[in-house]
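Input.
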Amino acid sequence: MIGAVYAVTTVTLLRRPLFANLVAAQAMASELRGSDASGDSDSIARVVMPDHVHWLFELRAESLSRVVQRLKSQAARDINIACGTRGAFWQPGFYDRQMRGDEDLLTQARYILGNPVRRGLAGGLGEYPHAWCRYGNDLSLAP
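Output.
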């Protein structure tokens, strides 16, 4: 539904740590920004983990399935080109949850930003290079 806020998680094929490659992680972050620039989404928070992506955003166009499929398809193509690889990139489908209010939104943003900390990839919020939130790292300041 246009205007609804969704938390989406999508996973690499066989949970391969493809985003451990800096070029691939940066390309994925660029694709997420590109979705916003195209008008499909308005990102609130995102993190590119080694084998999956968490994305919290307001849907701005079409259907959720089309926006996520377009993102995954474009990302796979561009990352394969950038990394000199070929073949399938993502597991089929994705997990999504529609947010029900500001409290859910902030809880989900905290979860997304904390994911690299829980996985031992960063010592604290703001230390992981492939995580971003429109409110910064101090979500106590968010509306």
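The longest helix spans residues 64-83.
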